[in-house]
Amino acid sequence: MRKYLGGFRRSVTKRELVLIFLLVISFIFFSVSFAIVPRIIKLNSLENQLSELNKEKSSYEKLYRKYLNYDEILGKYTDLLKSVPGNNDLSKFIGELEVWGEQLEITIISILPQDIITENFSEIEVNIVPCEITIGGEFDSLISFLDKLESCSRISQVNELRLTKIEDISNSNFPWTLTVKVNLYYFPQTT
Description:
The protein is α+β, with helices and mostly antiparallel strands. The protein has two domains: 3-63; 85-186, Alpha-Beta Plaits. It is built from four helices and seven strands. Strand 1 (3-4) and strand 2 form a beta hairpin. Helix 3 packs antiparallel against helix 4.
């Protein structure tokens, strides 16, 4: 069975026809691979970059997941500022003492704030206002006052207590006096 290839006047054998067919197929595969392989390499490179970005994104999400709830963090910060205010806020503290005095029926004799002390706690600078508070009243009322002072929302430290019984009750409105030395903590103003 002989066939004629266009342009050739001689007949082409079956073997030559198979070789031509293989040559054309090889050329088509080479052309396709020449056009597609660089795009496949680029696609693989982009997939690798995307995979790395997804890994980095997930690591950032893990790191910052606990900080996504800003309301909770803001609430904790507000609570901290109530415990350790941004200024000495001595007038507010004195106001609280007066309210406690009225509630417990005790008399505030004196409140003597002293010079401010600066201390560092874990590399955080904190100011301290030492105060000496003298009150008078019934023994149970004075103990209740101490309980309120120790459970105050503001961070403070009671250093010294002096409880004195008044011997001559006729000259005094209260049978006991209590002197408390307390340190009030606050953050210094930053400029």
